[in-house]
Amino acid sequence: MKKFLSLVLALVMTMSLVTVSAGAKDFSDDDSITYQEAVDVISEIGVVDGYTGGDFKPTDVLTRGAAAKIICNLILGPTTASALSASSAPFKDVPVSNTFAGYITYCAQEKIINGYSDGTFRPTATLSGNAFMKMLLGALGYDSAVEGYTGPNWSVAVIKQAAGIGLDDGNDEFVGSKAVTREEAALYAFNMLQATMVEYDAKTSVDINGATVTIAGDKAKEVENTSRTDGYIDDDNKMQFAERYFTDLRLTTDTTDDFGRPANTWRFKGVEVGTFAKTADATYTADVKLGQIYSDLGMSDKDEAAPVFVDGVEASESAKVSKGNDLKVSELKFTNSPAANCNVGNGTLVEAYLDEDTNDVTIVAINTYVAEVNKVVAETNSKDAYITLSELAAENGATSGLRANDEFETTGFENDQIVLFTYANNEIQSVKAAESAEGTLTRKVSGKSINLGETKYDFSKMYSVDGGESSLGIDSEYVVYLDANGYAIYVEETEYNIADYAYLRALQGSSVAFASDKAALITYDGKMKTVDTKEDYTNDFAGYGSELQIGNANSEIVLVKETSNGEYRLKDLDTKNPSIAKAEDSFELRNGVARINLTATGVAGHGTQGTDYIYADSKTVFVVGTYDSGARENWQDATYRAYTGINNAPTIVDDNDSSPATNAIGMSYYCRNNGVATIVYLSVDEADYKVTGGNNDVIFFAFESGSKKIEDSDNEYYTYNAVVDGKIVEGVKVDASVKINNRTSNGSFSSNVVFTGADYDDGVITGLDSLSNSGTVTGINKVNNENVVLGYGSGSESTYVVADDAKIFFIDDDGTITEGAVSNIRRSDEDVVTYVLEDGQISYLFVQQYFEDNDQSSSGGRQELTSITGVTYSAPNLTLTLNGTNAGQNYKVTLKMIVAGVTTELGTYTVTGATGATSTTAVLSVGTLASIAASGGIYMVSCGGQNATFTA
Fold first, then answer.
1. Which whole number is the average pLDDT over 716-745?
2. What pLDDT score does 10 carry?
3. N or C: which end of the chain has fewer CB within 10 A?
């Protein structure tokens, strides 16, 4: 061993060993890592690597070969260790080509690792905790023979020694016989960095009756450190392992993290790896008495003035941690002006730290808050993926301080997902998906708890209830979201669905047309519907003596739930019916603008929220009924259309004719939470107000995927692969009679198309609008991952910036759609590209890829086809002219048949560009083509992104 240590020391002192980049690594599975501090430090100095896919795989077991690599990285440094090689196979199952051959050879030569009696090493076999600890002890200088790490009971001596110097610190469930996982290996190696090295004064090996016995002059003693590195890890005049072998690594132990917890800060090559909270001496998940903390810390003397931090802010009143003190942490003053106590209760993580040298106590309280994910942004070349949150208001009025523009770098979350988060120092500190449970509300205790079925859920200190706690109804169905300790932190009605909302037009008893309990509704999607109700609601909803126009003082938006027998239960909501004046500029709803002005004061840009204006967001549903009094229509004649999101809402403003409106706008709306409208019903006279635009949803259809016409009892439609608002959807139904602006006359598309303004009826698209900010070109090339050239090879190329959150899709010849990235774009002068612009940047890109021969001419030039003309058929020949050809260039012509929206490829043919001309006429032998005109069918020839149709 002495020889081994001398060799290592010589290598370390004479070579530049550790060359890894600074800055803590981010692994895609960070949330699954238990020993974060250990993994961050060990991976940063290059001892344990992640995988090429960006993950660490913390629970994967460590193999014997990988363990050899870790030991070499620790002793030699990653740079030197990576250069190790084997000139011959060290074991019969470890050829020189084995990934770990060099590491295994080195460790075997230095007697760190032994093989098996059969001459094998078994590099892919797992390694026990005992065996790995033995390796680490050897690297620290402990001699196996002297310390008794040999013989049948070697593991007992190993574990006793390893535990005695803290190699297993942090793993309270260490079992030496179990296989070591990757993150456990990182933890033990991390502890080794901080462990003190040992040496021996003298050792002698003698032969006694044929057995070699090592006689030590004394026990192992700690190596002194009188060099400049003392204090890099511990200022104790002792040589910690990292102070000898990783002299670019520094540990500062007297820092605090953003929550105020005592912490360690690690730096490598002058760059901070991270600040990591120390392990608390006592931990609680609810409010706690100061006397209890005193007892749990095992104190014998009180601390009169322990600092208290709540979410990283120090309380104005310190804590007296003393025996029998019944004062709770929540009863301490957090601020004197305004007077407020510490926000501590159920679900608050309370940690107590005791400095045994000074008897000083530090108390830290960390609250968990609940939020909804409101933005998910993918990674770009210049910025990591991140999310932003919208905090859900706590019933006690407390807030975390979260700001709308606060970002948290992470992946794996979805828009509108309910999450738990912590917050300190004006930053989101952690985000975790909330677990949930569902059931029927059977009991509620205000401010304390709820029961779903037989299960009781105590409220967290920061609990929030959708619609407010007073809205909770016994026998209704709810979902409860739980914090990490099982406290209820957010409650909302189960399966909240905008489809459950409706405007109540009339009730049984208010119209002689009803002979039973019924309700007439305008549903969330603008449909008129009459339903049987489970009871007579005429006494529950005042003013419904006749049908009520939207915006009437008594108008109600209701929650509609179908019961098991097919009847419907109505629940009244807190409907607002603002009075809109008839005067000019008294109302203003603009597409894309969150603020909806309800009065002239609001339009002028000031006023009071809720009175003069309200807000909408991306989830607000607008149901707009329009009629024209100039055409002798009244509000009962209105036609309704629904829009989802303020970016899809229409613009509604007065007609600027300088005269008051004949009929005021009728408006009824409901807000579920946070003062933002959930659903808005409007009744608008188009003789007085302009209603323009709306529905900026993006829908793309891959025409090659079209089905034959399908007929059922309710509809006739075609189905397509499509992209709907950024998501690939198969089997989207388009009504066969739908009228498509500036496109085809029915739902059968003849090319890839992108639309907006979809109207639905029972899941079938019944209306579409053209998308003005879109276009289609042939040819594409990427400049880099942020810029693309459209119209590549056409002579009229344009370069566009691709937005950070742009959606990129690729379509093959069969109409199959896949999602990709800019990096997946190939250079092509044949691919047909449909694009959508937002603020001048590409927000959607749909690339129809053609995998056709497009050989270069002998001169190397490229010529883009401009059109296909002169297509005639006379059996068996098809004559056509390709315009824009290049001499000697081969062009692949595809013949297709399209009947009832179904495309069938009949064959492909090669045409060579004519010499001395830019147009090439070809006669193709295609055989006999059936006459399909009577059934509405056509034939199509395609080449170079150009199409032409004909009939046989």
1. 77
2. 30
3. C
727/742 Cα distance (integer angstroms): 25
Cα–Cα distances (Å) from 15 to 6, 9, 245, 250, in that order, read: 14, 10, 11, 20
Yes or no: say if 56 and 50 are a contact pair by the CB < 8 Å rule: yes
Query: Distance (Å, rounded) from C-alpha 283 to C-alpha 351?
Result: 5
Positive or negative, the Cα torsion across 111, 117, 119, 120? negative
Q: Is the pTM of this model over 0.90?
A: no
Calpha distance 512→518 (Å, rounded): 11
Q: Is the pLDDT of residue 239 over 80?
A: yes
Tens-digit pLDDT profile for residues 32-54: 899 999 999 999 999 988 888 88
Q: Is 5 helix (H, G, I), strand (E, B) or coil?
A: helix
Q: How many CA atoms lie within 13 A of 826 on its CB side?
A: 10
C-alpha 119/C-alpha 102 separation (Å) is 17
Nearest-angstrom CA–CA distance, 710 and 153? 77
The answer to whether residues 76 and 11 touch, using CB atoms and an 8 Å cutoff, is yes
Report the alpha-carbon distance of residue 252 to residue 555 in Å, rounded: 66
- The 3-state secondary structure of 534-582 reads CCCCCCCCCCCCCCCCCCCCCCCEEEEEECCCCCEEEEECCCECCCCCC
- The residue count of the chain comes to 952
Cβ neighbours for 210, distance < 8 A, ≥ 6 positions apart: none
Contacts of 675 (CB under 8 A, 6+ apart): 609, 610, 614, 615
Q: In angstroms, what CA-CA distances link 287 with 304, 315, 330, 344?
A: 20, 15, 6, 6
Inform me whether the pLDDT recorded for 863 exceeds 80: no
pLDDT at residue 509 greater than cutoff 70 = no
The amino acid that residue 944 corresponds to is G
Per the DSSP assignment, residues forming a β-bridge with 211 are 208
Phi-psi region of 46 (alpha: psi -120 to 50; beta: other; left: phi over 0): left
- Give the C-alpha separation, 855 to 565, whole Å: 68
Q: State yes or no: pLDDT of 586 exceeds 80.
A: yes
For residues 431 and 385, give the distance between their C-alpha atoms in angstroms, rounded to a whole number. Answer: 14
pLDDT of residue 508: 77
Report percent pLDDT > 70 for the chain: 90
Alpha carbon distance 414, 387 (integer Å): 9
Residues 493-513: what's their mean pLDDT?
A: 76
- Residue among 405, 369, 399 at smallest CA distance from 387: 405
Rounded-to-integer distance, Cα 840 and Cα 831, Å? 22
CB atoms within 10 A of CB 65: 21
